[in-house]
Amino acid sequence: MTKRDYYEILGLDRGADDSNLKSAYRKMALKYHPDRNPGDPNAEERFKEAAEAYGVLSDPQKRAMYDRYGHQGLQAAGGSPGFDPAVFSDFSDILGDFFGFGDLFGGGGRRRSRVQRGEDVRYDLEISFEDAIRGTGIDIQVPRLDACGRCRGSGAEPKDGLTPCPMCHGRGEVIYQQSFLSIRRTCSQCGGRGQIIRRPCVQCRGEGHLRSEKKMRLTVPAGVDNGTRMRLSGEGQPAPHGGSPGDLYVVIQVKDHPVFQRHEHDLHCVIPVNVAQAALGVEVDLLTFDGLRTVKISEGVQSGAQVRMKGLGAPVVNGGGRGDIVVHVLVQVPSRLTREQRRMFEQLREVLPADNEPQEKGFFDKVKDWAGL
Known about the structure:
Elements: H1 6-10, H2 18-32, H3 41-57, H4 60-76, H5 96-99, E1 121-127, H6 129-134, E2 136-147, E3 162-164, E4 173-178, E5 181-186, E6 195-197, E7 209-220, E8 229-232, E9 248-254, E10 261-263, E11 266-274, H7 275-280, E12 282-288, E13 291-297, E14 306-309, E15 325-332, H8 339-351, H9 362-371
Parallel strand pairs: 1-9, 11-15
Antiparallel strand pairs: 2-7, 3-6, 4-5, 8-9, 10-11, 12-13, 14-15
């Protein structure tokens, strides 16, 4: 029988790249896989044909030979193998994972590990605003599961608690023939371990772990914020059957501060001034996280004006630089006046210009922006 063109089999043109090649092969392989077409010899043949085409076109040297000389060139060079099950050994994501097989074909393929990884653990940690800005070290108690010391996590008595699995005879996988494929599946009875528990461990009652709390010292870097996640590798739950442990994720919650409010790396606060200070200007002391600093408010300042203090804000975590402190000025008008104060304001009213024309609409937008409305 004359062989069909490999590109025609996969529905590709000759300029197709590796991504298109894999995608086309996946589509064909899933369509004609024996599991989907039991007892259909035509589907079986199309499946082999697609595998052969992919095996040649995925190899740069074979593809170049085929592009130049066709099937005869491959045969002359000994490079036309026909259907080769080994083509799937490094491509199990196309077929093996889809159909639930770790290694579809007996012989040559790499066996994929079935050992599970331990679960990740979340720990919520509340810290003060000051500790978030400056950084801190803190001791935490994390509930966790530790591998049982008696059975070392196996769940079975150390001496005679395990016995070979009767279903897979200790291999950890079951091999059976389906159509032209020799298929391996992880043993459902032992989960791939090759052994089952005959006598559960008396200390952990077969669970393989014991509940405990682990005390650890956590270094919180300067600049963390609400929702910051710190990952501690390998500090999560232990894995069953000797797998690697999970990770511990510490999620930071920062308490509110009575003066400052954080926005990204800037710290915002409001400083009230009276009308005289606003008109004449004033210097105000502000206690920052770097000590006492002077805020210079210029004469004639209006409510909503901002004074930026460079480099006194929150640090960038594990990086360089800091944000700023942004001071919002609030001009306060007294709601009650003494007799003397009223007399002085009346005199001031006589000499100050009166400009009572309605403001343009943009003024209210500025007020809303400043107030966060």
